[in-house]
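Bench log. Compound arrived from synthesis this morning; before running ITC I wanted a structural hypothesis for how zinc ion sits in the protein. Inputs:
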Amino acid sequence: MFAQRFVSALGFGLKTKKIKVNSTIVFIRSRRNGTEERRTVKCKICSREAEASGFCSLHLMAYRNIMEKYTVWQKAVKIEWGEYLVQIQKNSLTGEWAKEVVKNIITGEHIDVGKNKKTL
Amino acid sequence: MVAKTPSASSNTWNCNLLMDKIAGGCVWLELVKYTLIITEKPAAANRIATALDERSKPKKTSQNGVPYYEAYRGGCIVVVPAIGHLYTITSKQKIRGYPVFDYHWVPRYQAEKGAERIRVWLKVISDLAKNAETFVDGCDFDIEGSIIGYTILKYACGEKQDTAKRMKYSTLTEEELQATYDNLLPHLDFALIEAGLTRHEVDWLYGINLSRALTEAAKSASGQYTTLSTGRVQGPTLRFLEEREKDIQTFVPAPYWSLTAKISIDNEVYIAEYEKTLKTLAEAKMIQATTKTKAGTIDSVGVYESTINPPVPFDLGSLQSEGYKLFRYTPMRTSAILQRLYLDALISYPRTSSQKLPPSIGYKNILKKLQKAPAYTKQATELLIKPSLKPNEGKKIDPAHPAIYPTGNLSQKPLDAASKNVFDLVVKRFLAVFAEPAVRQSVNAVVNLNGNLFRFSLMRTLVEGWFRFYRPYVQVKDDVLPPLSEGQPVEVLRVTLKEQYTQPPPRYNPRSLLLEMEEKEIGTKATRAATIQTLHDRKYLNGTDHLAVSALGFEVTGVLERYCPTVVSPKMTRMLEEKMEAIQQGRENKQSVLADTVKTLKRVTSELKDKEAIIGMQLSLALRQSWLNARTVGACLKCGDGQLIILRSKKSGKRFVGCTNFFDGKCSASYPLPQRGTVKPLGSTCKSCGAPMVATYLRGKTSWRLCLNPQCTSKITGNKAGI
Ligand SMILES: [Zn+2]
Ligand SMILES: [Zn+2]
């Protein structure tokens, strides 16, 4: 994910005339008719478009798996939620996106594209 | 063989006299009537000319680097090769945008950079065509071969496609080539050609329109031009790789437990597994506690025999798959090796989907020839004394060719290791399909430990059958089977409880991807391997053994799936394949399929154009990420939280490694890099100092591993072979 953070710093800013980013809402101006369209919120973790949950479809899929598997883990080892998150985060079989979601839940931190907001 | 009549020999004499007298090129050809045979590749032209010439000594001429052969067989023959496709499709107007629906077939040099050689090549073919009396298409008998022959006959020979005759052969052996030439098909296979033209034109329309849409979108967002590509086959293939990647990246494992018992029977140790997996730790521990016993008994013993039929003859897909499984050769590599073996007349035509071996290929004759090779003498002899030979054929068919089989010819020159492996595999598979079934025996025992049931099974071969013919490619384990009986006591050495986790689905490897494409009927046998290669070349995939979709690959499919789902759906691809199959059988025509394609693409491209801005933003982000990934060397040694990347100084134009935190004014770490050749991050760190490593390549060959730290003791280590 780090890569996106300094994309703009390397001088590859998007053309500001076409796209501007206002916190997590993206406005797109169509080249054809010049109208501005309000785009949905960005994912809490990556720069993809988010769904109502605040996650993009990929991170949402991971989030759902985390929730679903918790019931399985609870039954298997009687584990607390927090400990469960720690366990799956250090498990090498856990997918990268699932780990990103776990990190997001644990820290409450957003790894968003904050740093390049101004140049976007 | 055609018997030499007196007149035939006098003609030979005439031909040769002219050839001898008028040296230099095809001047003599203006004076005699001849048949012009067009082949797909120079090696095939040489084979055909040699096989057809009554003295097996055709005269080779090379004009501006284009070889052709003069032979005599009841009349003068000139054999001229192509070098694969000489014609291609291009748009009529030279504009950059999309959609594009006007196209035509042109010589490749008009559409592709660096195809100048084709101009010379076509000139030679056209000159030879001027005085030819009859025309024969001698290209491979499949879609691609038919298109190569058809376009040359139509465009380079002056509309000879309707009068030309066709050679149909599956091996480049002398016998078959002579027989096919003496019994030419009266005309080209027009249904096959129409299907081929349709495939090329449909694929071109999809490829150019979708690729341009993606490229333009990315360019409109970033102002930079990077070619992005997709296509009718590429899109759906990338899509199911992407589906799998999603499952892996969002995977959350769950724990379960297994119990294994180490037991001893008559001083032999066996491992028995508890009959089911345990979903909770409590249950697992409870069962482990109750199995704490020193003695158990055998509850039941089941002895089974199973017959294992010989394998079926190789079609291209199953051979590529076996090549990967046994030798780790990519489908592309196996394909290339097979092509060479075919051109050397060692094996039959490899681009086949047939699993049939008709008696007409002459089983006995092939076996007799193989008998001469010491490695196959024993097996071939054994088959030859059988009262009858019947191959164990598979279900798949191919209207044009049988399954892949050895011609019986043995290589005159030593083969390289890889070709040797593949040739041996083809021969042994051929031998195995004629052999008897094998019989295996398995013993399944249930062991009772305090009421808990554990199982183990052992296997051995009773009748070797075809196994003997297919060694070392048959891999079966033979256990020593002890005499076991119900109620027999068992000594328990240890019961182990093991915590395990559910596994994510495996990544595709080149073999499983190929099988999946085959199963879903995406692409054709001839193109599948190349499609996988293209996905690599476009940086849509990471890894060579375990194929993972890259961030860029994700974004490209994401965009296509979202804005034009039809073009990436396997269903759509399969429907088109079915239509092309129907054209080949004369049930559908090219015009209607192309009209449908244009209709679909008009809708899709207009949708893509409307959403160009948002698509462009997504794609350019992914492109940058892929740009960065390719340049990221490792974590910064100085500041710790920055990343070191390969950069170029705006002032001096020199290449160096800098820290990403430099741009925020937080870190000034920088390291010099060699200025020549290409530099790639190695993804590893130096053993002596821990600094990230890069590799330097000069002209793609010589490479050095280089540690970034200028003070490191083990500064530079030369490494000749590629890293
Ligand atoms: Zn996301
Ligand atoms: Zn730094």
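What the model suggests: The radius of gyration of chain B is 32 Å. Chain B has 22 helices and 24 strands.
ITC booked for Thursday regardless.
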